Amino acid sequence: MTATSEFYRTAQSRGAVDQRRVGSPETMLHNGIARLADYRPAVDRAPAALPRPSLSDREVEVLLAWLAAESKEEAAARLFISASTVSTHLARIRAKYTAVGRPAPTKTHLFARALQDGYTSLDRW
């Protein structure tokens, strides 16, 4: 007997569970209702390190300037390059992330990747 079914039986015997609304623990699991334990990492498994693409110093510089800017044109002006050069760098950065299995199609995704890979921190923003 699992702890879930034991809890369920105890609660049901006290009248705390309405069988018609909730169903049995097996039905709940079958219907896609997850248990808290489903979200906890296994103790015996260490989290796998995320594959990190090798971005050049200039790519990191362009990425961070673009993340801080309202537009590619603004980032380009800060770096004294053209907006198309910013676009080219961003396309290469996205391709590198896709190549390691961590696609970043939007600015928000790229911001998350920069945080995950240590290129920036939340304190900076």
UniProtKB/TrEMBL annotation:
Keywords: DNA-binding, Transcription, Transcription regulation. Transmembrane segments: none annotated. Gene3D superfamilies: Winged helix-like DNA-binding domain superfamily/Winged helix DNA-binding domain. Residues 1-13 have a biased composition (Polar residues). The keyword Transcription regulation applies. Residues 1-24 are annotated as: Disordered. GO terms for biological process: regulation of DNA-templated transcription. It holds the Pfam family GerE. GO terms for molecular function: DNA binding. PROSITE patterns: HTH_LUXR_2 (PS50043). Residues 48-118 form the HTH luxR-type domain. This is Putative LuxR family transcriptional regulator. It comes from Gordonia namibiensis NBRC 108229.
